[in-house]
Amino acid sequence: MIVDLHSHFFPAEAANAARSSVRVEAGPSAGQTHLRVDGQDFIVPAAITDPATQAREATQAGLDARALLPPPFAVRYELDPDDGVDWSRRLNEGTAAAAASDPERLIGFASVPLQAGGERAAAELDYAIGSLGLRGVELLTSVCGTGLDAAQFDTFWAAVAELGVPVVIHPHYVAGAQHMRQYYLRNLVGNPTETALAGARLIYSGLLRRYPGLHVILCHGGGALPHIIGRLRHGFRSRPELRDAADPDEGLRRLFYDTVVFDPTVLRHLAELVGHRQLVVGSDYPFDMAEPRPAAFVADSGLSEQAVASVLHSADRLFAS
Questions:
Q1: What's the mean pLDDT in 40-61?
Q2: Which GO biological-process labels does this protein carry (predicted)?
Q3: Is the peptide bond before 286 cis (omega within 30 degrees of 0)?
Q4: Number of other residues whose CB lies within 10 A of the CB of residue 247
């Protein structure tokens, strides 16, 4: 199967039923959808709340199925722990219902309340996978600035490893965003930089070594992370702060990377750095920063026939483990 593992869906009605303080309003806006989430306004493609459109447009894009991930603004780690637990439950129930409406073409991914600590996040993941039938989990790159390698999340990572589900890490809470207000730089530069920061922490901390069964996917081709491997490697060999860190070359090849890079030269370079078996199809659908033909982009990238087949069918490996 060709599965888009980086695409977004927001179950607005289910989210609005949460007991948390977050209020959700959704309405039409010139052919798009106007979402107001906790007082913040987002003009988004109407498909983000419509599973039927998601499934139909997946087929039109040459995909067999697509994952339903909450858009990053919907994850809400800034909620207090109790509100966060309930908010994640509503998102997961709404996503599960959407996936069940077309189970051949839609694959639900969970959200978990990491701000409530590893045990509660693990409990929600277990419910989402075991009871709701979701197939993976999306995390943001930090929990309001706290790295995903922090000790309070160890219980959660142990649960992920035991369940064997893929983890998609999406940038948000961008460090230095106050300096990126012009030219859409918060997204264009901030997102790939934030992903590199999260990935470097996962690698150097040894988390990937401690849980060797993890399948962690970094969005946007890993952002800047693969392209600064020489610097990460030199620091590992040279700096005393990294004396007890894990080898960045080993970690880089353990992670997975989606194909949302928009340039075939970059995709080929990424495959050369990490191996084509570490690449997965992604689009960032339905936003305007999406790759509109993700399968064709891979097929036409200049990768070898074997590599193209490996990337296009990467989901078979991730969901089979």
A1: 92
A2: secondary metabolic process
A3: yes
A4: 17
DSSP string of 148-161, one letter each residue: TTSGGGHHHHHHHH
Q: What is the pLDDT of residues 239-279, one digit of tens each?
A: 999 999 999 999 999 999 999 999 999 999 999 999 999 99
184: exposed, middle or buried (Cβ count in 10 Å: 0-12, 13-18, 19+)? exposed
Q: Flag whether the pTM goes above 0.70.
A: yes
Structural contact between residues 274 and 217, judged by C-beta atoms closer than 8 angstroms: no
Give the tens place of pLDDT for each residue, 64-98: 999 999 999 999 999 999 999 999 999 999 999 99
pLDDT tier for residue 18 given thresholds of 50, 70 and 90: confident
Q: What is the DSSP string of 86-130?
A: HHHHHHHHHHHHHHHTSTTTEEEEEE--GGG-HHHHHHHHHHHHH
What are the angstrom distances between the C-alpha of 75 and each of 62, 70, 143, 238? 29, 7, 10, 38
Q: How much is the pLDDT for 321?
A: 54
Angle at the Cα of 257 from the Cα atoms of 179 and 319, rounded to 5 degrees: 135
Give the amino acid at 211. Answer: Y
pLDDT at position 294, please? Answer: 98
